[in-house]
Structure formats: C-alpha cells, structure tokens
Amino acid sequence: MGNIVLFMHCSLDGFAAGTKGEMNWIQVDQELFDYVEERIAQTNTALYGRVTFQMMESYWPTAADQPGATKHDKVHAVWYKNAHKVVLSNTLNEADFKNTTVIGKNYASILPKLKEETKGDILLFGSPSTAHALLAENLIDECWIFINPVLLGEGIPVFKGIKEKEKLKLLKTHVFSSGVVCLNYDVQRGN
Known about the structure:
Layout: E1 4-11, E2 15-17, H1 30-40, E3 45-49, H2 50-57, H3 60-63, H4 71-82, E4 84-88, E5 100-103, H5 107-117, E6 122-125, H6 128-136, E7 142-148, E8 156-157, E9 167-175, E10 181-188
Parallel strand pairs: 1-6, 1-7, 3-4, 3-6, 4-5
Antiparallel strand pairs: 2-8, 7-10, 9-10
Helix pairs in contact: 1-4
Domain Bacterial bifunctional deaminase-reductase C-terminal: 4-181
GO molecular function: 5-amino-6-(5-phosphoribosylamino)uracil reductase activity
Protein name: Dihydrofolate reductase
C-alpha cells in the first residue's frame, strides 16, 4: 500500500504560486533535480490536478527529444512516460491520454482504494487546488515542501481546507546551495 506524498514548492510566507498562478519565483537547478529524481525513481504513480497535468502533458512527452534537452529533461521524460498518471478532473477524458486515469467528483472514495492497489507511493506534484481538496479529506500522508527564499506577500496558499489540526513529524531536511530548503514531513493522524 502506498502513501500519497505531496511535492510542492513554497514561498517562505506559505504560498505555492502568485495570485495569478505565477511560479517564476521558484528556484530549480540540477542539484535540486538530482535530489528529487532520487525520490521519484522509487515510485511509478503521479497524481495531478487538471491544470498541472495539462502543463505536464504539454512538455514531458517530447522533452527528451528536444534539441538541448538537459539531463533532467531526459531522465524525467522517461519516468513520466512510464508512470501511471492519475488526474483529478471533471472535464478531461482519460481515453485522450496514455497510461492515465481520470478521477472526478468521487476522488475521496477512489483514492483510498488506489492507495491500497498501488505498489509504492503516489506522488502529488504541485497542484495547489488538488492538494487543498485532498487535505480537506485527510488523504495526504507525507509532505515534501521546498521552501524558496522569497516572500510573495500574497498568492495561492500551500495549505488550505484543513478541517482539523494535523500534527506533522519532521523526517528529514535538506538545504540546497541555492538557499531552497526541503522539509519532509509525515502526517501524524490520530495523535
């Protein structure tokens, strides 16, 4: 049985994106990519909201074939191609995509079953609205939050929709040379 693991960039003041969804403040480099790829390689299931999935679909299927493709582009494109993608959407048709399951309004009952059937974890990449929905249903088991050294002042919050206090247990921290800090937490239910 796998866990649902949230992977999200965050400003120091708690935002996943600017007020219009902008993410140009996120700091990424090969050091961060290598760190994340090591974790991603341990699973083969990705979870996205519709907006993030469409963004991923517009890039990753052909990223490795582009002139000047980076090491990260090549490695992640292979992983993305082979990964089972689960998308929370009420409008997408899963027949339009390879290796993809689209889940609509019944996600709160479907995801626990998917967790039981999945070998390895299910990684939720970005997707603030999806993260908010899953947090409200207590469906996120672990968080990898990448704190970027920037203050946005306002924007889309990382954490929203939590119905009751959730205790987190710090599992690991990692500081990158860029100043980004990864905080890895386990959600402590029933404590």
